[in-house]
Amino acid sequence: MKLHHQIFIAIGLAALIGFLMPQDLHIFGVQVLAVLDGIGTIFLNALKMLVVPLIVAAIMSSLNSIGTGEALGRAGWKMGLYYISTSAIAVITGLIVTNIIKPGVSKGEPVKDKLGLSERTTDVLEKVQEHSVGDFANIFFDFLPPNLFEAALNGQMLGLIVFSLLFGWFMQQVQGAPGEHLRQTIDGFYEAMVGVTLFIIKFTPIGVFGLITSTVARTGFSALTPLLWFFITVLAALFIHAFIILPIGIKLIAKRSPLRMINAMSPALLTAFSTSSSAATLPLTMECLEQNAGVSKKISSLMLPLGATINMNGTALYECVAVIFIAQAYGLDLSLGMQATIVITAMLTSIGVAGIPAASLVAITLILGVVGLPAEAIGLILVTDRILDMCRTSVNVWGDAVGAVLIARSEGEEEILLKAPKAI
């Protein structure tokens, strides 16, 4: 049975068992929920264990494949353009959908009182007018951390990526036997990491079962009711971006079938959905893209680690919708300038958000401070965050994969999405 079929079955069984199972169920004196939490935690820890060595090795090894000449510069510019344009489109999509649906307004009235927000609207408006996007400039310091090991420990991947790119670039300049040995060592290390990754990926259905069962057992399906319109708004915006905007790029630019692309990436997308972690899903994303979609290692191993850190389409969209929703709940009529500020800050914060579950909540708190909205409002979206986190993480991974296909096709790779997906 293929991996994505196993994952799909695991998700279905987990949802059913989690819904029927009492939270305090004990078997032989052991709490079942605690065991399921432990299974999910072990699985996530195993995937996260791979992230730092895999990203570093993949980027350095990919520079071995691409080289340091015109090909690298051309691919790099294309990647940067893709990241910026898709993130901007995602955020603007979220902004438009939120302004159309208006989830923070009910029967023409803001839902502030219904949601129990205590701060007065006039006080909030004064704070909004005091802030600007300049408060977020500190995020760029993460590009050059003073201590790489500390940055890795804290999940600040931007610094590691910058260092890996610099090291990989200058590794090409080392001449003679030392340079050749160094490049062979890096390639060998990368191959070993791929082997470890494939071994851990085999246990994905078990980890998914533990994660989903414990989540459903705690929240049930009724947790979505209080903020149903906010939930619908986020899902609608994510759907438009993932299944309308990005597939247009696959069809018109890559000239390939979006349905075949979805089929090729389904194991990674299901894993992203169940783990809510684009970083933890990265090893499987790379495997699906290379084995199923036919993208070369030199493109996937450079673009996916970068994308898992700085190309958070779903996260940026979600942050924008959440902040606009909170502003609507307070009855604030934000100017176009302030909404533009929210768009820019959502894009900036999505770059710095670690690819781990619920990391965007930290970013949303920061955006609320930037635009002057009270941090207490973050509590409004906690009830739906886990499920929406699963959805937006899938969009993050999907956006990275689509970008890799577009770049690879533009670089002349002809075998992409022409063969049936392989069993992983």
List keywords for this structure.
single chain, 424 residues, mainly alpha, Proton glutamate symport protein, two-stranded antiparallel sheet, 72% helix, 2% strand
Structure, explained:
With 424 residues, the chain is mainly alpha-helical. The protein has a single domain (3-410), classed as Orthogonal Bundle (Proton glutamate symport protein). 72% of the residues lie in helices and 2% in strands. The chain has helices spanning 3-20, 32-66, 70-101, 121-130, 148-153, 157-171, 176-201, 204-219, 228-254, 258-275, 278-291, 297-310, 313-329, 336-352, 359-371, 382-410, and strands at 26-27, 30-31, 105-106, 109-110. The strands form two sheets. Strands 1-2 form a two-stranded antiparallel ribbon. A hairpin with a 2-residue loop joins strand 1 and strand 2 (30-31). The model is unreliable at 131-136 and 222-226 (pLDDT under 50).
